[in-house]
Amino acid sequence: MRKDWDTYFLDMAYMASTRSQCSRRHVGAVLVQGKKLLGAAYNGAPMGVPDCSEAGCMLVEEFELLNQGGDEQVVKKQRCIRTIHAEQNLLLFTDPKDREGSVVYVTDQPCWTCANMLANSGISEIVYHRPYPKDSDKVKSLMQQKGITFRCLEAYEPPQGTMAEVQH
């Protein structure tokens, strides 16, 4: 049976994610214009630098002030700063003119930083599979404000052998 285009390109993003050496999350992203693949990337340390599997994660704690129903709440987050995210690598290694009106397929919903970068990149759509609850609401709001189509393919099944265990 022939795969639909969303499945086809999300499969490619999952294949790209298999290159990641991150012990916390394997993420892949591809840039598509029309039905043409323009680039692929995954999360990892900068080229030539030991990655998380060799040097361990470089974790930092951050605090975010959230206003929920008039009540302010401080939320503690932990993230690895050794790794360049798949979306960031995709933007680094693709041509800006190729991004105009293109679609990014990514295994995971972009974090806030990646969402900001994608929002300024000229793309018209983001398609992802796995949610990222830490930043979900504000990322969805940003995409709506920018007019960027933002879709989750919940029923999607990744190719066998491409799903790495996600650690939070």
From TrEMBL:
Active-site residues per Swiss-Prot or TrEMBL entry: 87
Needed co-factor(s): Zn(2+)
CDD domains assigned to the protein according to its UniProt record, in alphabetical order: deoxycytidylate_deaminase
Any one GO molecular function term: zinc ion binding
Transmembrane segments: none
Keyword Zinc applies: yes
GO BP annotations listed: pyrimidine nucleotide metabolic process
UniProtKB keywords: Hydrolase, Metal-binding, Zinc
Residues engaged in binding Zn(2+): 85, 111, 114
Sequence similarity: Belongs to the cytidine and deoxycytidylate deaminase family.
Record-given protein name: CMP deaminase
Organism name: Paenibacillus rigui
